[in-house]
Amino acid sequence: MKIIIAGAGEVGTHVAKMMCHANHDVVLIDDDEEKLKQIDAHFDLLTIVGSVSSIKDLKQANAGDCDLFIAVPPYEELSLMSAILATKLGAKVTIARINNYEYLLPENKEFFKQLGVDELIYPEQLAAKEIATSLKRVGIRQQIEFSDGKLILYAIKIRDNAPIINLTLAEVDERHDGKLYNTVAIIRDGQTIIPHGNERFRHNDLVYILTTPKETAKVLRDTGKQKFDVKNVMILGGSRIGKKLAERLGVRYNVKMIEIDREKSTRLANELEHTLVISGDGRNLELLKDEGLKKMDAFVAVTSNSEVNILACQLAKKMGVKKTVAEVENMDYIALAENIGIGTLINKKLIAASYIYRYTVKARVSEVKCLIASDAEVLELVAGENSKITKNPLSRMKLPRDVNVGGIIRNGKAIIATGDTQIQANDKVVVFALPSGIRKIEKMFL
Questions:
Q1: Could you tell me which residue ranges the RCK C-terminal domain spans (predicted)?
Q2: Are both 429 and 391 inside the same structural domain?
C-alpha cells in the first residue's frame, strides 16, 4: 500500500515507523529538513521537504496516486487543508488529525466527508477515553473493550499472591467449569510470549486476558486482585487530555485537577462544571497532601512532561493511592515506567497509530488497539464469506504461532474461543498478533 504522511511530528513519525515495519511504501512530508534527515537515517521511507498544504509539494509526493493519505501536522487547519487537497488530487482515503471535539459530531463529520476528509482523528480524545475506561477497575494495567464491552481484554500484573501463580494455562482451565477466559499474551522480561497450554504464570508476568463482563470477578480472583470502585480522582495537568478526561468523568466521580498555569486553571475552572480546579505546582508534595492526595482512589498525571508524570505517580503510589495513570510520550521511558510498576501507561502516539492502522488492513476490521507494553496489536476482525478462517475448528486451522484467537462476537453474543470453536462468516473475532503475524492472519479472514 502506498501511504503518504503529512507532518513529521510525534504522531506522524510514529505512524511512519509503524507503516515501514509493516512493509508499506511510505512517503513523509514536512518543512523541517533536519528532522526528516534524522528520520530518513533510521527508516526505509522517502522524505520530501515541503509544505503539507502546498499543491506543488503534494504533487511531488504523488499524493494523487496514494492509497492512504494521513495528515498529522501540529495545527488542525493545516491538517484539514492538506487532506482536502490530497483528495482533490486523487488520494483514495484521507485521514486528518484535529483537536476540536465539535468536528467529531456526526453531522460535522459528514460535512468534512463532503469536503474530502474521510476520517477525523483526535488523539487526545482517544487517550482520554482509554484513561476513563481504565478507571473502571483497580489492579488492572490496561482495559480494552470490544463490541460495546461484550468482550474485555485486561492487562494484569501477576504477583506471588495470585492463586494461579506457577500453574499452567491448562491447569487453570481445569479448575473452572468451562472456558471462562483466554490468556492471549504474556509479557515477561520485556519479551512478548504467545502462550500455549503448558505455559506457566510467573511472578511479575504482565498477562493479557480476554473475558466477558460476567466472568470478570473470577479473573480478578484468579489473579489475586480485589474489586475496588474508584470514586475520587485527582488529575495532574490541565492538558487537552486532562480536560477531555474531566469532561468524560463528569458527575460520576469526584474530580480535582491541579494545573500550574494560573490563567489556564482559571479558564478550566469556568469550563469544567463538575471539576474542582486548583492552581498550583503538582510537583510540590505539600500541595498534593493539602489537596487530599491520600484520600484519592485514582491519580492521573497528564502533564506535557513524561518524567514529571512518572515521578508524580510514584509519589501517589507511596501515599497509598490504589490506581495511578501516567501519560508517557517519551518512548524510551515506557519500559522503565512498566518495570517500576507505575500502573496504567498512556501514549497518544501509539493510540493514534493503532486507530490509523486499521485502514491498512485488507480484511474487514472493526477495532485495532495498541498494547502499551508490547509491540503487538489486538484486532477485531470480521470473518468474510468463504474465508479460510471459517473452514475448520481452530484446533485444525494451523494458526501462525505469533497469533492468538481470544474470543468471538456472534449475533451480539460473546464466545470465549477454544480449540473446538469454528468461526462463521460475519463473526467479529478478537485476535492478538505480533507484527510478524498480522499479514498471515489477515489473509485467513479475506
A1: 141-225, 366-446
A2: yes
- E strand or H helix at 339: helix 334-339
**338 inside domain:** no
Question: What size, in residues, is the chain?
Answer: 446
Residues 237 and 292 in one domain: yes
Task: Check: CB of residue 37 under 8 Å from CB of residue 43.
Answer: no
Give the chain's domain count.
4
- Residue 207, domain CATH: 3.30.70.1450
What are the cell numbers at 134?
A: 481504565
- Cα separation, 125 vs 318, whole angstroms: 29
- Pick the closest to residue 256 from 271, 234, 283 (CA basis): 234
Which cell goes with 39?
528520520
Taking each helix axis from N to C end, the angle separating 123-134 and 348-357, rounded to the nearest 10 degrees, works out to 110
9 plus 106 within the same structural domain: yes
Residues 64 and 114 in one domain: yes
Per-residue pLDDT reduced to its tens digit, 82-139: 999 999 999 999 999 998 889 999 889 899 999 999 999 999 999 999 999 889 877 8
DSSP lists the bridge partners of residue 368 as: 379
End-to-end CA distance of the chain: 16
Which CATH number is 281's domain given? 3.40.50.720
Domain assignment of residue 345, yes or no? no
**What is the per-residue pLDDT across 47-82, written as a single tens digit (0 to 9) for each?**
999 999 999 999 999 999 999 999 999 899 999 999
CB neighbour list of residue 68: distance below 8 Å, 6 or more residues apart: 1, 2, 3, 4, 91, 92, 93, 94, 95, 359, 360
* Domain membership of residue 238 as a residue range: 229-321
What value, to the nearest 5°, has the Cα angle with vertex 72 and ends 67 and 78? 105
Q: Write down the pTM of the prediction.
A: 0.86
